[in-house]
Amino acid sequence: MDIRQRLATNLRRLRLEKGWSQEEFADQAGIHRTYVSDIERGARNPTITVVERLARPLGMSPSELLA
Questions:
Q1: How do residues 1-40 score in pLDDT, each as one tens digit?
Q2: Using an 8 Å Cβ cutoff, are 65 and 40 in contact?
C-alpha cells in the first residue's frame, strides 16, 4: 500500500470512529469538503501542511496519521 492509500484509509477510519461526516471533519480541519473526499479516495497528494491540518482535529501527529 502506498503512502497516499495509507493516508486515505487511516483518515476515513479515524473520521468515522469520531462519527464525523466529511463536511464536519473538513470544517474542523479548515479544508474544503471535496478536498477531504479526494484525499480519502487517494485522488490527491496533499502537502505535509495539509496532513498536519488533518491530524490536528483527530488529536494526533502527522506521523501517526501516516503510520
A1: 799 999 999 999 999 999 999 999 999 999 999 999 999 9
A2: no
Q: What is the CATH number of domain 3-66?
A: 1.10.260.40
Would you list the domain boundaries of the chain? 3-66
- Supply the pTM of this predicted model: 0.91
The DSSP code sequence of the chain is --HHHHHHHHHHHHHHHHT--HHHHHHHHTS-HHHHHHHHTT-----HHHHHHHHGGGTS-HHHHH-
Q: Which residues contact 34 (CB under 8 A, 6 or more apart)?
A: none
pLDDT digit string, tens, across residues 48-62: 999 999 999 999 999
